[in-house]
Amino acid sequence: MGFLEGKKIVIMGVANKRSIAMGCANAMIEQGAELIYTYQNERMKKSVAKLVDESALLVECDVADDASIASAFQVIENKVGKIDGVVHSVAFAKKEELSGNVTDISRDGYALAQDISSYSLLAVSKYALPILNENSAIVSLSYLGAVRAIPNYNMMGIAKAALESAIRYLAAELAPKGVRVNGISAGAIKTLAVTGVKDYQKLIQLSEERTPDKVGVTIEEVGNTCAFLMSPLSSGIVGDIVYVDKGVHLT
Ligand SMILES: NC(=O)c1ccc[n+]([C@@H]2O[C@H](COP(=O)([O-])OP(=O)(O)OC[C@H]3O[C@@H](n4cnc5c(N)ncnc54)[C@H](O)[C@@H]3O)[C@@H](O)[C@H]2O)c1
């Protein structure tokens, strides 16, 4: 029996088979979880539908829109009732904010990246809370650029710093309500999102060269940690950022 047997978990952010959310989904299914997938828009729906079990519930949720988040969790409650957790694997910044100088980041670009990549965790948690069971968990995805100045990661690093802080504040608020909130700081992996960063190959190269076996972390490894953090096995971990990067952050 898997350690997520009987748990219903919402997974946000599957875009394609390379998505970190897909690694998380597969690991949680392996441990017995029943998943509900949210997708950003109709185009993403088609992509997600090809990847998941045809009986799985797919729900639209644009995290830039409160009404969409509210409606998504209403649909989820109507269809499956209470849930045991949410995985937030969502981020966005305009390409021009992921290169050059941070002094050139526009006010609009800053607000947009923060809105989708950081604020959305607070909004999603707000609308999920009424349908979360006791002993639930929320996990979000961060990157080393939150705490170091990584070339070209720029705006997303600033947004990830805010996200990591939001994780700690949320964790403190929701722990007494039986909801643990944590983050995973994943090593660089070639996904759709990372290709928005100028010279992203260098990020991936850095994440490979600094590992003991020169092989970068995989979505399966990140997914396994996600499954653990969503489960009662991690009951002692609250408001933490767990590095799943094969030691890249050490040097
Ligand atoms: N790939 C990496 O190297 C890496 C490393 C550390 C952390 N992360 C983080 O992992 C998470 C997942 O990214 P990924 O690398 O798997 O890329 P991805 O492109 O596969 O996933 C990003 C997801 O964000 C979703 N999204 C963007 N705007 C949205 C909106 N308005 N509403 C709903 N969904 C929206 C997209 O639809 C997509 O599914 C992100 O938070 C990313 O910053 C990625």
Automatic annotation (TrEMBL):
Keyword Oxidoreductase listed: yes
Keywords: Fatty acid biosynthesis, Fatty acid metabolism, Lipid biosynthesis, Lipid metabolism, NAD, Oxidoreductase
Listed InterPro entries: Enoyl-ACP_Rdtase_NADH, NAD(P)-bd_dom_sf, SDR_fam
Pathway noted in the entry: Lipid metabolism
Enzyme class: oxidoreductase
EC id: 1.3.1.9
UniProt GO molecular function: enoyl-[acyl-carrier-protein] reductase (NADH) activity
Catalysed reactions, as listed in the record: a 2,3-saturated acyl-[ACP] + NAD(+) = a (2E)-enoyl-[ACP] + NADH + H(+)
Family listed: Belongs to the short-chain dehydrogenases/reductases (SDR) family. FabI subfamily.
Name of the protein: Enoyl-[acyl-carrier-protein] reductase [NADH]
Organism this protein belongs to: Enterococcus larvae
Source species taxonomy: Bacteria, Bacillati, Bacillota, Bacilli, Lactobacillales
Name of the gene this protein is made from: fabI
